[in-house]
Amino acid sequence: MAGCLDDQVAIVTGAATGIGRAVVARYMEEGVRGLVAVDRDGEGLESLAEAYADRIRTVVGDVREWTSHESAVATARRAFGRLDVAVGNAGVFDFHRPLARYTPDSLVAAMDELYAINVRGYLLLALAAREALTESRGSLVYTASVASQEAGGGGVLYVSSKHAVLGLLRRLALEFAPDVRVNGVGPGGTLTQLRGTESLGQAQRTLGADREASAARIAQTNPLRLAQEPEDHAGLYVLLASRRDSRAVTGQLILSDGGVGVRPIAPF
Ligand code: NAD
């Protein structure tokens, strides 16, 4: 049976767990020729390599570093001959910390770390993948967030970093046209183990540590009353990578958040 992504070659960053891992699984189902999974979690990548054998290569690396991206693109070309879609997804959270809870030093350290992962990591991927994507007339897809548009989706650093992702996907859509499409998926609260920053001592803290409590809390935030799973978003990454189904779509953010933007002002 033909898949939507037959014969395409992809890179996914932050592929070891959560939303990235669900995208890998779905891209595999949709027939990709090969996929390069990038993450700093070596164990998570090993389990992906076992699951997908010949069709996957892994790069253990930090998305803050140019070499991780350079190596991912070189691996895609060497192992699978081309690159059609690059998914920037690795990210960290700030657990809703307001500005008033920072000192000047902690703000500088946390901002350097969070922005380097959530924003610089996405730009480095774009820079590394541009040439190969231009050759294939492929696409870039970024994991943005409901926090790319809403003030309440995190603290000041996370919200502003995800707003920045919207700006960079729109600007890159302009710069990379007419050859490469650039779009984003904006998940709302999703049941993953999204972590915080080392600089705030939150590298081991996870968003969904108490799954039941998280599910109940997230479901209250959107009209569809959904606590989303990573798999709920994966099809949108397929759609945006599909030349057949989204050939004319670029510079767009598709929110996948249970309708946060249409919540009532008065209770209903
Ligand atoms: P997750 O922690 O399960 O996945 C993130 C992955 O990125 C992990 O495998 C982690 O090891 C990797 N990673 C983090 N920093 C890295 C670095 N410096 N270098 C290499 N790899 C790194 O969490 P998730 O929720 O699946 O997060 C994926 C993306 O989704 C993030 O960009 C996040 O901001 C975004 N997002 C999450 C939610 C949510 O509620 N979970 C909502 C909106 C957007």
Under CATH, the topology can be stated as Rossmann fold
Named once each, the bound ligands are: nicotinamide-adenine-dinucleotide
Order of strands in the sheet with the most strands?
3-2-1-4-5-6-7
Spatial extent as radius of gyration: 18 Å
Number of structurally distinct domains: 1
Number of helices: 7
Calculate the terminal CA-CA distance, rounded to whole Å: 45 Å
- Structural class, from helix and strand content? alpha/beta
Order of H and E elements:
EHEHEHEHEHEHHE
Mean pLDDT: 96
Helical proportion, percent range: 40-55%
**Global morphology:** globular
What's the CATH H-level superfamily name?
A: NAD(P)-binding Rossmann-like Domain
* Strand segment count: 7
Summarize it.
This protein is of the alpha/beta class and 268 residues long. It is built from seven helices and seven strands. Helix 1 packs across helix 7, helix 3 runs parallel beside helix 4 and helix 4 packs parallel to helix 5.
Which helices and strands, and how do they pair?
Blueprint: E1 9-13, H1 18-29, E2 34-39, H2 42-52, E3 56-60, H3 66-80, E4 85-88, H4 104-136, E5 139-143, H5 156-176, E6 181-187, H6 211-219, H7 231-241, E7 253-256
Helix pairs in contact: 1-7, 3-4, 4-5
Bound molecules: nicotinamide-adenine-dinucleotide.
Residues 14, 16-20, 39-41, 44, 62-64, 89-92, 117, 143, 145, 187, 189-190, 192-195, 207, 230 line the site of nicotinamide-adenine-dinucleotide.
